């Protein structure tokens, strides 16, 4: 019997009865005498500091499972029938807060199947309708009174939690956040009170949203526009976010969104001239150069006026890759916050719109949420809007679309509050929008609004949606629009006359037909101080020659400064040797290695007031333990970053080890680099091979963003690349993929082989007045290779050399074979040639593969008058690496120097995998390809030597 009682107590206290304990604990903290002596004795055991109440509840439940004292205490605390029912009332309140959303009327179509929620039944808590007139304590239910009848409380909770809004927030651990949300939701009683002026403003924005779609539908019949019909409440929602944020100090809003509703957003929120949009429908282009892009991928920027002042809006360009724009927006926001020194993240905020199916299905959404509170990527909270069409393209079955109840459940991973709202209730939409903005500004965390709506026209206007959703579209065909429903409501309430409501439609259409701006707060003469000035970086062409040297005394001073430590700072033994060696490199006692030259490049840029940002997995130390830009005290674990101490008031140096993501992180850095021009923004892959997890960022943004959208970007990618016998996934950064994407001077692809080269290459990327993405096939073994060294004088003068001629003193007239190569294989070739004392072979490094330095290479080859053949040597298999790209570029260069000279390739044989997994086979292949390149054994097994 006693065991049964204990099981019952354990079950109750593990479930909704936790609300009762929490209520008692709050009363105890305010006034210990307000609870019974038994409860006082129990609560006295716990510290009274600012700890989550859940900690106390968990400890109490644990006690319930292990203590025989519990049952008498519980019985004495709820000894009367009324007290037992009072416990049930508190349990019912907790149930509504936790599960009321599952009963909410969210679907405008009334097709959403809602399962019965037993926890919301009175009987589940020992109550019945006969208790409706009984007065109980309201606990912390925020309805304006400490006591109310059960009927009053149930009616209030039905209005708050089960009407047009379904709120999910009880999964949040932080009690302050939960109490704040409870107060805002419950004090409104689910019936927001707005003035007639606000209601008429809502109707005006709905009229604009609907009016644009109707005009486009009649003017351009059948043309794809991914219209907003069925989700018109999205426009007043975004308008309210901007206005409300602006009223509390926000000065910039960056918006990311997919196709659906984008044209509506451009015209009705950002103020794009309708005449320009019509021109795009009629085939005109407004791009000055490049390929351009379809109209529903276009970005835009403008300024609008808010109660708190002028706000700059930026709608990010984005491709048809669903959610990939989300981290791009975050990166742009972070860069704007840095530029404004917006420490709290209030001056610049992100709004990210999503489709329901994409929000649930795309992994980059989860990656973006995961970065939201990390040091490197936080932006102080994003406002997410899910335009929930309840169907993904043609998939409407929930068990096909996701494994969760809501598409938004993924947001719970970061304890994000989620507010579901019926899009056909514009006032509920407005209320939740205001709550979401205030939450974000109060707690600086992400918040999600799930706008339940529908698609009136299908995925696009060329689709026939009834083919796959016949029942849904039978309902939609009969359903009045959101604007119609709301206008009828306001007319019935006497807020506006029917004539005035109808006149709104005519006025808006007239403005569109005249090509007038229809955004309701557009600033005609924007404050240009809110803009980012890219003019100094536009209109330039890529040139090879750009001096990047630094005065040698400055180099020595910076190098010494970068390797001095605070007093008492104890380094790990191997790291101490790195620092000791770098100090010797400043005096010439040792030659500079890769890490020293790279660090000097950063320090010189910081000294010249260029921002430097470097992120990626393990970038502080460096995957291959070469950088050591972060130093750790072995005594107390404190971190010291020498590059943050170059000089007083130096430019910002941002160094962050990223979380284990490639796609979201690289997209973030792209967004950052397209927003801050005067800096060096670098993402380093742990291994270059891992970039394939972010290939969409390369394809859709880095390589083509300029030609599609005229978006200039100076992002640098450091991709460790080189065949070291580590297998298929740790050898190749897939050089061939980048080269395939190269055209129109869209980016730079380089294979530097010396510390001086990486020094000049990184500096060139920042100090040259042009911004193009830079892809560096960076080394692994060369970081400590005995031949891969430089001296300070090479850093003090000169530039990045796109082509490096033979370095050994050989007679150029005796050379009959010229080997061209890039990257780490150069040193394998050099050592083998020296070992064999081959005097008729010259080795030339092509350090920049794109833009291809044809003129420079031709000049270099011309110095070998008796050469009989040119060999391109690469470590990659013949079907990979640079050969396929370079071959058609090499032939005309070689032909112009000396017609008839054959061009061949020495490489690994063509392969489906990037590299072999056997160390033995790797070594055999490497030996063979080097031999084939040098002409030692043209038919070596494990290498190919083909050409024309």
TrEMBL record:
EC numbers for this chain: 1.2.4.2
Protein name: 2-oxoglutarate dehydrogenase E1 component
Database matches in CDD domains: TPP_E1_OGDC_like
Keywords from the UniProt entry: Oxidoreductase, Thiamine pyrophosphate
Cofactor: thiamine diphosphate
Organism: Aquirhabdus parva
Enzyme category, top tier: oxidoreductase
Top-level taxon of origin: Bacteria
GO MF annotation terms: oxoglutarate dehydrogenase (succinyl-transferring) activity; thiamine pyrophosphate binding
GO biological-process terms attached to the record: tricarboxylic acid cycle
Entries under SMART domains matching the protein: Transket_pyr
Alphabetized InterPro entries for the sequence: 2-oxogl_dehyd_N, 2oxoglutarate_DH_E1, DH_E1, KGD_C_sf, ODO-1/KGD_C, THDP-binding, Transketolase-like_Pyr-bd
């Amino acid at each position: 019997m006693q065991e049964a009682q204990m099981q019952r107590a354990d079950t109750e206290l593990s479930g909704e009865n936790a609300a009762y304990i929490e209520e008692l604990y709050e009363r105890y903290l305010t006034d210990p005498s307000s609870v019974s002596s038994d409860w006082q004795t129990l609560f006295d055991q716990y510290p009274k500091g600012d700890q989550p109440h859940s900690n106390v509840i968990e400890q109490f439940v644990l006690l319930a499972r292990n203590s025989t004292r519990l049952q008498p205490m519980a019985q004495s605390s709820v000894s009367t029938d009324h007290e037992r029912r009072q416990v049930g009332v508190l349990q019912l309140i907790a149930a509504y807060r936790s599960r009321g959303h599952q009963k909410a009327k969210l679907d405008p179509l009334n097709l959403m199947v809602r399962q019965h929620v037993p926890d919301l039944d009175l009987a589940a808590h020992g109550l019945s309708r006969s208790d409706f007139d009984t007065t109980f304590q309201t606990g912390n239910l925020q309805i304006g009174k400490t006591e109310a009848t059960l009927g009053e409380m149930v009616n209030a909770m039905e209005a708050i939690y089960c009407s047009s809004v379904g709120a999910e927030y009880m999964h949040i651990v932080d009690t302050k956040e939960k109490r704040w949300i409870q107060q805002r939701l419950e004090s409104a009683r689910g019936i927001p009170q707005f003035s007639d002026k606000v209601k008429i403003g809502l109707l005006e924005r709905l009229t604009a949203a609907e009016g644009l779609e109707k005009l486009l539908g009649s003017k351009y019949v059948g043309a794809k526009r991914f219209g907003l019909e069925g989700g018109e409440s999205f426009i007043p929602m975004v308008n309210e976010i901007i206005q409300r944020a602006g009223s509390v100090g926000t000065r910039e809003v960056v918006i990311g969104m997919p196709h659906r509703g984008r044209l509506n957003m451009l015209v009705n929120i950002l103020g794009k001239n309708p005449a320009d949009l019509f021109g795009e429908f009629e085939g005109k282009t407004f791009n000055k150069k490049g390929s351009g892009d379809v109209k529903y991928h276009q970005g835009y920027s403008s300024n609008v006026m808010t109660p708190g002042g002028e706000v700059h809006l930026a709608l990010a360009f984005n491709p048809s890759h669903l959610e990939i724009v989300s981290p791009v927006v975050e990166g742009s926001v972070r860069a704007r916050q840095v530029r404004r020194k917006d420490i709290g993240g209030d001056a610049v905020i992100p709004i990210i719109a999503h489709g329901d199916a994409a929000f649930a299905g795309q992994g980059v959404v989860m990656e973006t949420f995961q970065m939201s509170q990390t040091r490197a990527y936080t932006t102080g909270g994003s406002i997410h809007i899910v335009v929930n069409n309840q169907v993904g393209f043609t998939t409407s079955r929930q068990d096909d679309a996701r494994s969760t109840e809501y598409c938004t459940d993924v947001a719970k991973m970061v304890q994000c509050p989620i507010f579901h709202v019926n899009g056909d209730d514009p006032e509920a939409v407005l209320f939740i929008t205001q709550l979401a903005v205030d939450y974000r500004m109060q707690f600086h965390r992400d918040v999600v609004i799930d706008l339940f709506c529908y698609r009136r026209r299908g995925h696009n206007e060329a689709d026939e949606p009834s083919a796959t959703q016949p029942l849904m579209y039978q309902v939609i065909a009969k359903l009045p629009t959101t604007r119609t429903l709301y206008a009828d409501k306001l007319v019935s309430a006497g807020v506006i006359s029917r004539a005035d409501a109808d006149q709104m439609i005519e006025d808006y259409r007239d403005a569109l037909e005249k090509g007038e701006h229809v955004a309701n707060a557009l600033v005609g003469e924007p404050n240009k101080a809110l803009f980012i000035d890219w003019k100094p970086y536009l209109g330039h062409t890529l040139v090879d020659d750009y001096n990047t040297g630094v005065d040698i005394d400055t180099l020595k001073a910076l190098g010494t400064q970068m390797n001095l430590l605070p007093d008492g700072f104890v380094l790990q033994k191997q790291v101490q040797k790195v620092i000791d060696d770098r100090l010797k490199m400043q005096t010439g006692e040792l030659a500079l290695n890769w890490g020293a030259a790279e660090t000097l490049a950063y320090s010189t840029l910081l000294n010249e007031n260029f921002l430097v940002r470097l992120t990626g997995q393990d970038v502080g130390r460096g995957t291959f333990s070469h950088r050591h830009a972060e130093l750790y005290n072995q005594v107390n674990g404190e971190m010291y970053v020498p590059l943050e101490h170059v000089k007083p008031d130096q430019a910002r140096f941002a160094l962050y080890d990223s979380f284990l993501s490639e796609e979201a992180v690289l997209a973030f850095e792209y967004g950052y680099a397209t927003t801050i021009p005067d800096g060096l923004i670098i993402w380093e892959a742990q291994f270059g091979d891992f970039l394939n997890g972010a290939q969409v960022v390369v394809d859709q943004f880095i390589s083509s963003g300029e030609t599609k959208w005229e978006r200039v970007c100076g992002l640098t990618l450091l991709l460790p690349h080189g065949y070291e016998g580590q297998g298929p996934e740790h050898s190749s950064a897939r050089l061939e993929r980048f080269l395939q994407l190269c055209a129109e001077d869209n980016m730079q692809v380089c294979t530097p082989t010396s510390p001086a080269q990486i020094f000049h290459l990184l500096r060139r990327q920042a100090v040259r007045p042009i911004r193009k993405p830079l892809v560096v096939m960076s080394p692994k073994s060369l970081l400590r290779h005995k031949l891969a060294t430089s001296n300070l004088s090479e850093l003090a003068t000169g530039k990045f050399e796109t082509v490096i001629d033979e370095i050994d003193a050989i007679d150029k007239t005796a050379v009959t074979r010229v080997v061209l190569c890039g990257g780490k294989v150069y040193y394998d070739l050099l050592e083998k040639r020296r070992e064999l004392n081959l005097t008729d072979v010259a080795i030339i490094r092509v350090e920049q593969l794109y833009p291809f330095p044809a003129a420079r290479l031709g000049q270099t080859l011309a110095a070998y008058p008796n050469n009989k053949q040119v060999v391109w040597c690469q470590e990659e298999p013949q079907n990979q690496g640079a050969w396929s790209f370079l071959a058609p570029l090499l032939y005309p260069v070689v032909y112009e120097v000396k017609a008839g000279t054959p061009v061949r390739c020495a490489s690994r044989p063509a392969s489906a995998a990037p590299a072999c997994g056997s160390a033995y086979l790797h070594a055999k292949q490497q030996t063979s390809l080097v031999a084939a390149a040098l002409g030692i054994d043209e038919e070596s097994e494990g290498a190919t030597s083909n050409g024309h």
